[in-house]
Amino acid sequence: MYKVIGSDNREYGPASEETVRRWIAEGRANAQSQAQTEGETGWRTLGSFPEFAAALAAGAVPVPPTPSIPPPAPSATEGMIGHTQIDADALAGRLCARSFELDIGSCVSRGFRLVQDHFWLTVGAWAVSLVIQISLGCVPYVGTGLGIFLGAVFLAGIHWFFLRLARGEPATIGDVFAGFGPALGPLILVGLVSFLLEGVGFLLCLLPGIYLMVAWHYAALLALDKRVDFWAALELSRKVVTRHWFGVFGLGLLAILFLLAGTIACCIGIFVTGPIATAAIVYGYRDLFEETPVPAA
Question: What's the pTM value of the predicted model, to 2 decimals?
């Protein structure tokens, strides 16, 4: 396991070797990033780790060497952890060019195993997110507005929690509130813009609204995970999901059925079926938006 210092001077990890390679491929870390393995007391550059030589050669963009630890604040063009600058259009092109079909069964089976392996943690995090959102909706006079205003923030947070677990990274219930950070502004805009345009779509002919609701479902998590602005997140989600629209629609429909089944089971079952449904959705995100191949079920 490895720890990496981002350009925001924050420490990230422990993370697996696969996760660090993904950060390199996404431009979130480079040869000059300060890192250490668990148990080490000193920091050294990622370029000094032979296990990352191939990943750095394939995907790293050369940057001037950093003179000291912690590294200085990044420029606008540096793409380090916490300040990712990606070309969303180029990423969408690469993702859409891949030849594969979204496997709904695999997403569900992996989601089930994830919840099974982290049962109380996933149930607790999902329950906290649900209770807070219900409580906000019950605030007199402004509850509905708060739900719309912060809907994407909480959606991104619960998805981020499950995404960290799915990537083999440590996660806590506090990750549910990850949206209340640097990505807060883009997330609020994702929620407001998608709500308005989806509403227009439903009013016009119903089908455009359904299309946009499915196509933009991953926009909130993209804004948080990829650190892109709200429109780039909406467009990246739309372009990639459109390529697999019926698969994502089927996965979403199955998630809704899971939630309904849990509600019918004395309402208590939703605290089990809800986490499974969310985990399955997140595995769909991994399959669609991660360039590094995700292990099959």
Answer: 0.71
Q: Which long-range contacts (CB under 8 A, 24 or more apart) does 66-75 make?
A: 66/32, 66/34, 69/5, 69/34, 69/43, 70/5, 70/9, 70/34, 71/5, 71/7, 71/9, 71/32, 71/33, 71/34, 73/7, 73/8, 73/9, 74/7, 74/8
Tokens of 160: 């981020």
User: Prior bond to 14 cis, omega within 30?
Assistant: yes
H or E element in which residue 199 lies:
helix 184-205
With a CB cutoff of 8 Å and minimum separation 6, the contacts of 121 are 165, 171, 173
pLDDT digits (tens, 9 = 90+) for 43-87: 788 888 888 888 888 754 444 444 444 444 443 333 334 444 467
Domains of the chain and any CATH numbers: 2-85 (3.30.1490), 97-289 (no CATH)
